[in-house]
Specification:
- This protein is of the alpha+beta class.
- It has helices spanning 3-16, 27-31, 83-99, 118-128, 143-154, 194-205; strands spanning 17-19, 35-37, 51-53, 59-61, 69-75, 104-110, 135-138, 159-161, 166-170, 172-176, 182-187.
- It has 6 helices and 11 strands.
- The radius of gyration is 16 Å and the shape is globular.
Length: 207
């Protein structure tokens, strides 16, 4: 692998993955840039095929978002820590996207699909005041299928932590282009910077 590819491999292990438990605090994220240009990787990151249902039980696949920009993150409704920071941060981005009339859809993949039913995800979204017109919470797949999709699309592993009653998952947000290529990673937790991230989204979507 070329030097840039090696650098990204290192970043994936040190930056992207953290659990909701304080035991997996992502110190590297807070120290790094809130925006990472994934298009600079040796090989393009492409979202792989997936299928599930959203909070209303409607079938959602990767083809649902073809032709539009979309912003994704991982969550689960009984997450004891970082999701409670990440979801409000994503809600703040949604508010800005709506205010500026930018055509960006938001997607939240649950990493706890056996527990997170569409009804639970709808309640979760309502609790945070999200606008479901442009935000899908996705479930309805198996845990192993979800692991595969997140790993192959975002180069990030998912791991259950039974002793902590937790699930380790990435704390980044991911911006996809209309053809399903992963363009950006954004800090979703401690390194979150609304102004810098919105400026980057605006520059890409409005180009």
């Amino acid at each position: 692998m070329k030097k840039l590819g090696s650098m990204f491999a290192f970043m994936m292990t040190g930056i992207m993955v953290a659990g909701c438990s304080f035991l997996y605090e992502d110190a590297s994220e807070s120290a790094g840039s809130p925006v990472i240009d994934v298009t600079q990787a040796d090989d393009p990151w492409q979202v792989v095929d997936f299928e599930g249902v959203n909070q209303f039980g409607e079938t959602i696949t990767n083809e649902t978002y073809e032709g539009e920009w979309w912003l994704a993150k991982t969550i689960f409704t009984r997450c004891p820590g970082v999701c409670n920071v990440m979801t409000p941060n994503m809600k703040e981005l949604q508010d800005g996207i709506i205010e500026e009339d930018l055509d960006v859809h938001i997607v939240g993949f649950t990493v706890d699909p056996d527990f997170d039913t569409p009804e639970r995800l709808e309640d979760y979204g309502e609790a945070y005041g999200v606008d479901f017109e442009s935000w899908d919470f996705i479930t309805g797949y198996s845990y192993s299928e979800m692991q595969r999709v997140i790993l192959e699309s975002f180069n990030a592993p998912i791991q259950e932590l039974p002793e902590q009653e937790d699930i380790m998952h990435p704390v980044r947000f991911y911006l996809m282009s209309p053809d399903g290529q992963v363009y950006r990673m954004y800090s979703g937790e401690s390194g979150f910077d609304y102004d810098i991230i919105m400026e980057d989204i605006r520059s890409l979507v409005s180009a």
